[in-house]
Amino acid sequence: MTARRRRTGPLLLAAAPVLAVLLAGCADPDGDGAAGVPAAPRPTAAAPAAPAAPAPEAAAEPTPAGTLLVADFGADTATFVDPARGAIGSVRVGTAPYAVAVGPDGHAWVSTAEGVAEIDTRARTLVRSIPYRTRTGPAGTGEYRGGGMGLALSPDGTRLYVGVNVPGGNGVLEVVDTAKGEVTGVAPVGRRPFDVDVSRDGREVYATGHDSFDVTAVAADGLATRRIQVAPYGTEGGLGSWLKPHYTAVRPSDGKLLLPFEGERLAVVDPATGRVEIEPMTADTHQHGATVAPDGRLLVVGSGPITGDDRGPSLTVRNPDGTERAYPLGIPHENVALSADGRTAYVTGGFTRDGYWDGITLVDLDTGATHRLEAGHRPLGVAVL
Questions:
Q1: Which residues pair with 383 in a beta bridge?
Q2: How large is the C-alpha radius of gyration of the chain?
Q3: Which helix (H) or strand (E) holds 20?
């Protein structure tokens, strides 16, 4: 356990059975483990009870441009956050909100354990809740709960795509007609769809299967599927491995998919051919959330060490030419969004494992200065309004 076991290849995972038991998960920190079936979250990993949110009321004043909307995974709310002032209001959306997507009409969508919530972001009120078509068991909390995980809107905002986790089996992608507010289609995808992305032309949807080491490409019309394995370290360890894909970003220049692993390897996937190329990364830390800027910069959240020789939490900014800068964060974080001017990153402290905190770190990408802002309850997903 002293050297970088994974640098010499995936077979070394098999040479460290004790380590595999201790670290099963990766994202298996809450223990879906070696039995091959995701387990319920352990009590120690469950989010602390958050105070009940007051009944939603219309905002006294319009929501300012640049406000953040975060999904409170440790509560039943989505919180509006002014980067200069902090929280300015919350809306009840359902159990364990996970991800956020914002449409061109000023409405936002939040995935929860029971269904998808639609929010009027100007009035800061809940419009409606849309149940999933797929049964996922009782609404629960924690990383292994059933229900919605990643989600994304079509470019025209008419369809919402939600990755739904089905405990004990493969997930599904549910398609929501945003005008009708109902599920109109379902497609099979991989296990625990952490992230969902849409191609630039809207013709394909990509669901990242965390526990199946893959991305499922789904045709927007007809919902035909293609599985692309993405496992730069191999699949040794199965559900007990921590070297799994988490979040994906679509590169603006060519539509290829970017999946970071461990601050060491970037998987670049051509969805048209299924070919996967590997490029080196430098942060040397377990990585989760990712987003890409219009100019092609990739932002990746490093959540901290998995093995003793990993580096701490950081935010990596990778330029299109492959050069990188890592901004230390000090404590674990989960996901990231970028300000409209591209100069400030908003990194959520919720984290899917233990070690989360109730706030957001603002990172000045010019100077490297950071500022922590208390907001929300274990915030995971984040979007800029």
A1: 69
A2: 19
A3: helix 17-22
